[in-house]
Amino acid sequence: MSRRVGLTIVAVALAVAMTLTQSSEMLVYIGTYTGKSSKGIYAFRFNQATGALTSIGLVAETPSPSWLVASPSGTFVFAANETNTFDARQSGGVSAFQIDRATGALTALNSQSSRGAHPCHLTVDRAGTHLFVANYTGGSLAVLPIGTDGRLSPATQFIQHQGSSVNADRQKEPHAHSIDFDPSGRFAVSADLGADRIFVYRYDPKAGLSAGPHPSVAAEPGAGPRHVAFLPGGPFAFAINELSSSITSYAWDGAGGELKALGTVSTLASPHRGNSTAEIRVHPSGRFVYGSNRGHDSIAVYRVSPDGTLTLVEHQPTRGKTPRNFTIDPSGQWLVAANQSSDSLAVFRIDLVTGALTSTGPLAAVGAPVSVLFVPGS
Question: Which of 10, 125, 147, 288 is the most buried (most CB within 10 A)?
Fold first, then answer.
């Protein structure tokens, strides 16, 4: 083992120990597609020492909260209500809730239009003053102010994406699938599955989003970029491509706001009919990247090379069907996967040396889970 790798492992272990000292129990909120098996947002207690999930139950009734995000303070939760109707208009909605950290209960604050159909992804700026929404069917972005009390104001900015690509069934028009900030918080990137592009925006808290000096980067035709994850504090970003079951590595110029493709790897060891990808996460250490396969029903694990390219570590079955979303806990020790089509959550321990996953404990039951959010407990 090299001295550099050894020091990295020690640093990660120390970070884990510090996190566990600060809070041994987390709250886990689960967003769902509502229907026969689900009514909204569910909550669990998560033991960071053992990886055990304990159900709290339904904490908020709200239509199809398919993406959840917390305020930087951990005081509020915001949900994307992935519908196509809001107040009798063709639009989805976004809802705000206040957290009771002692019980995990959520108190509904208010809801606003997302300004587009089927909002599917949310991000909050680092100051906690604005909520950013990606509308899938609408192919658009919206920005909503957040009050000091957590309530949302109507959108103050709306951006309509343009573009199409080669897949006649899925790429006739733009489909904004996510919006994320770079490590500095000065730029935001939006993966658009329909346009086969990742759009890059400069962000100013007063002026909002504006086209960056390098407004977009094209994906490989038919790839369908879905989500983007940045290396913590580093010069790389990774986009998971839903339609081609692949991950593309990008060099990120944080000064000029530019993405440059470095290479693409498959999320599958061999072709799997009907597979599509969903979520991508970078480990807090910056050493590993994880991506989910729906159909193959697995998490693909990669090691990040110094040049930003990815090397496959393993494929780990998620013990269920259709892992739409998964999240790594703040300590970096655990990964929780949401199996949408089998109504279950699976917990995996992360090997901090190799990045490999080990399944732990029984599956936790929840109807149609599609978003996993960790929030510190009391």
Answer: 288
